[in-house]
C-alpha cells in the first residue's frame, strides 16, 4: 500500500465568493474558474497508485476540482478492505493506528493538493440518508468528525447532499451543513441536488450555503417530462438564469450535466450516448449564461470501472477508467477554462442583447452571449450565423476572431466599426457539434 502516512500537505489558496457574489476567487482575490470532474468513487475503489495516476491525468487536462463521495453508503469500504464505519453508523468512524479508510482518504486528499487540485467532498450520498439510515443526531457527530479532521487542509470544498432532493431528509442536510459551517469557517459549502434541480430550491437562504450547484441531468429534450417550473430539457443555461434572479446573490453552476459515454436518460443501455459535442455544449451554454464554472463527467470514470470487473458497468459502461480518462471531451474542457480566464473575468456578465433581436434561436440553435467592458464571447453549437448588435462593448472598432472549442485555437476574422449590426458565418456546415465561439475585443487605438 505504500507509506501509511502523508507528508505535510501542500497549502493551496483558500477559496471564497467574490465581492460581486457571482464568482469564486482565491483568498488573494484571483479569479478561480471551477473546472470539475466527477471522480465519485475515488476514495473507495482506487488503490493509492491508481489514485495518483488519475490525479496526474486530471491535472494535465486542466481540471482543478474533483467531486468525490466520502461515503457512497454506510457500508463503505475501500479497495484494501478497510471499512469506513463501525456498525454502519456514521457517528462511529472506524479509526485504527495503522492503515484505515480515513488514512487512505487523507493520502488522496494530500496527493491532490500537491497537484493543485481541490476536493469537493460529499460527506454521504443521498440514498442512505433518504432510506433513514442516518439520523440528525448521527449526522451532527459525523459532520463534526469531518470538520475537525479536514478543516486545516486547504484544498477542501464541502459538497453536502448527493443526487437527492433537499426536501428528502431536509433536517439531516441542514444539520450537516450547519455543523460544517459552524466548525469550519475556512471552506466553502454547497449542495449537490438530484437531476433537474438546483440547490437553490431548498437551501438558497441558508447561511451555510456558499454557492449553488445544479444537476441538469442526463435526459434529452424528449425524455424530460418533468412537471412545472424545472422543466428545462437540455437547456441547462436556464438554471443559471433562474438562480441569478434570487436574492441574496450567490454563484451558481452545473455540477452534473450529461456524462460523456452515458446513455440518454441513463437506463436504456441501447439508447444513443452523450458525446464530446454534448459536454462542450452544456459547458459553454451554462458558463456564458453566468455560471462560475462547470463540472465534466464520464460514465466509466465516475464509477472508476476497473479491468477486473467482468460485468458491464452501471449505465452500460464498457470502458475502463484508465482508458476513459482520455475520452475526447475530457481533454477539451480545459479550453473553456482558458478562454474564460483569458480576459478580465470578474467583470463578466451574461448579455443576450449582444445578439440581434429575433436571432437568438432555441434548443440546439440557441446562441448565448457573455461580455466584459471591452470583450464579448458568443457561442453557437451548430455553427449557424451570428448577428451582433453594436455598442455593447467599448471601442470605436472591434477585433473579431473564432475560438475553436475542440482545439483551443483562435483564428482572426476582421476588424470592424462598432456602429452597425455585423453578421458572422462560422467555418463549416451548420450541424450539431460544429460549435464555435465568436470572440470580440475592443481594438486598440493607433495614434498616427
TrEMBL record:
<dbReference type="Pfam" id="PF13204">
    <property type="entry name" value="Apiosidase"/>
</dbReference>
<dbReference type="Pfam" id="PF12904">
    <property type="entry name" value="Collagen_bind_2"/>
</dbReference>
<feature type="domain" description="Apiosidase-like catalytic">
    <location>
        <begin position="20"/>
        <end position="346"/>
    </location>
</feature>
<dbReference type="InterPro" id="IPR017853">
    <property type="entry name" value="GH"/>
</dbReference>
<dbReference type="InterPro" id="IPR024749">
    <property type="entry name" value="Collagen-bd_put"/>
</dbReference>
<feature type="domain" description="Putative collagen-binding">
    <location>
        <begin position="349"/>
        <end position="441"/>
    </location>
</feature>
<dbReference type="InterPro" id="IPR025277">
    <property type="entry name" value="Apiosidase-like_cat_dom"/>
</dbReference>
<protein>
    <recommendedName>
        <fullName>Collagen-binding domain of a collagenase</fullName>
    </recommendedName>
</protein>
Amino acid at each position: 500500500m505504500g507509506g501509511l502516512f502523508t507528508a505535510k500537505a501542500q497549502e493551496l489558496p483558500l477559496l471564497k465568493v467574490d465581492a460581486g457574489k457571482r464568482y469564486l476567487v482565491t483568498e488573494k482575490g484571483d479569479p478561480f474558474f471551477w473546472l470539475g470532474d466527477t471522480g465519485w468513487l475515488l476514495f473507495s475503489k482506487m488503490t493509492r497508485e491508481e489514485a495518483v495516476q488519475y490525479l496526474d491525468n486530471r491535472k494535465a487536462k486542466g481540471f482543478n476540482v474533483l467531486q468525490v463521495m466520502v461515503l457512497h453508503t454506510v457500508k463503505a469500504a475501500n479497495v484494501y478492505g478497510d471499512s469506513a464505519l463501525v456498525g454502519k453508523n456514521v457517528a462511529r468512524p472506524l479509526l485504527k493506528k495503522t492503515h484505515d479508510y480515513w488514512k487512505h482518504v487523507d493520502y488522496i486528499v494530500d496527493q491532490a493538493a500537491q497537484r493543485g487540485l481541490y476536493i469537493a467532498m460529499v460527506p454521504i450520498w443521498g440514498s442512505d440518508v433518504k432510506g433513514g439510515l442516518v439520523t440528525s443526531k448521527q449526522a451532527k457527530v459525523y459532520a463534526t468528525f469531518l470538520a475537525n479532521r479536514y478543516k486545516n487542509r486547504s484544498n477542501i470544498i464541502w459538497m453536502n447532499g448527493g443526487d437527492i432532493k433537499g426536501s428528502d431528509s431536509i433536517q439531516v442536510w441542514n444539520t450537516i451543513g450547519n455543523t460544517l459551517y459552524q466548525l469550519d469557517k475556512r471552506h466553502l459549502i454547497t449542495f449537490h441536488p438530484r437531476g433537474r434541480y438546483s440547490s437553490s430550491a431548498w437551501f438558497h437562504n441558508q447561511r451555510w450555503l456558499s454557492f449553488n450547484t445544479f444537476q441538469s441531468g442526463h435526459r434529452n429534450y424528449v425524455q424530460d417530462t418533468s412537471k412545472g417550473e424545472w422543466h428545462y430539457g437540455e437547456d441547462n443555461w436556464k438554471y443559471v438564469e433562474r438562480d441569478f434572479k434570487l436574492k441574496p446573490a450567490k454563484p451558481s453552476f452545473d455540477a452534473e450535466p450529461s456524462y460523456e459515454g452515458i446513455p440518454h436518460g441513463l437506463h436504456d443501455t441501447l439508447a444513443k450516448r452523450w458525446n464530446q459535442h454534448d459536454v462542450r455544449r452544456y459547458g459553454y451554454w451554462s458558463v456564458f449564461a453566468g455560471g462560475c464554472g462547470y463540472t465534466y463527467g464520464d460514465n466509466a470514470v465516475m464509477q472508476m470501472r476497473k479491468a477486473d470487473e467482468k460485468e458491464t458497468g452501471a449505465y452500460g459502461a464498457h470502458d475502463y477508467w484508465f482508458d476513459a480518462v482520455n475520452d475526447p471531451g475530457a481533454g477539451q474542457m480545459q479550453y473553456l477554462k482558458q478562454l474564460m480566464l483569458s480576459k478580465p473575468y470578474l467583470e463578466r456578465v451574461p448579455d443576450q442583447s449582444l445578439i440581434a433581436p429575433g436571432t437568438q434561436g432555441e434548443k440546439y440553435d440557441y446562441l448565448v452571449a457573455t461580455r466584459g467592458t471591452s470583450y464579448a464571447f458568443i457561442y453557437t453549437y451548430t455553427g449557424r450565423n451570428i448577428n451582433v448588435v453594436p455598442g455593447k462593448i467599448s471601442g470605436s472598432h472591434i477585433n473579431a476572431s473564432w475560438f475553436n472549442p475542440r482545439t483551443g485555437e483562435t483564428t482572426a476574422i476582421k476588424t470592424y466599426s462598432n456602429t452597425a449590426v455585423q453578421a458572422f458565418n462560422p467555418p463549416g456546415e451548420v450541424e450539431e457539434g460544429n460549435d464555435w465561439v465568436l470572440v470580440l475585443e475592443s481594438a486598440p487605438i493607433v495614434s498616427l
